[in-house]
Amino acid sequence: MRNIILCGAPGCGKGTQSEFIVERYNLTHLSTGDIMRAEVASGSELGKLISSYTSNGQLVPDDVTIQILEQHIDSLPSDTKGLIFDGYPRTLAQAKELEALMERRGDSTAVLIDINVPEHEIIRRLIERGKTSGRADDNIETIKKRLIVYHDQTRPVDAYYDSLGKYARIKGMGTIPEIFERIVEVMDRMY
Question: What integer best gives the mean pLDDT of the chain?
Fold first, then answer.
């Protein structure tokens, strides 16, 4: 299977670019954020637990996130061509667990594509998104907390994948098609 990881700060365009990757390469999009928001919307106990973290700009604990992701992967059809991990892994422990999970399944991740966008642009994008998204975490106070968490906990994931020879950083500024072409260059080189 083709398995890639899209990484970058909140609001860098992972979800937008995932749609184009799905269309071009016929991969299955796995957004832990979407999966968790659906769980929160269901009103389940797990959803309430997730909300207690995300509403304060914190990451959901690794053990909960990994369990949710593995259950979701197990539910996919057997003819799945590959996966796009959107916004996951967010911690070094999650990255190591993801690699172990893929290895247990006789598969691997090919590359982590880091969509790099300057922080002032990330804040602008998220504030704009918050005007229409209805997402409780798209406000300036929570955005700043999310960016601190991103720098402290998620950036080390980049170094881990770089050490595995599975890291590519692309410029996340420009038009959506320009950014997508940068992703295509990386993916076509990896496959």
Answer: 91
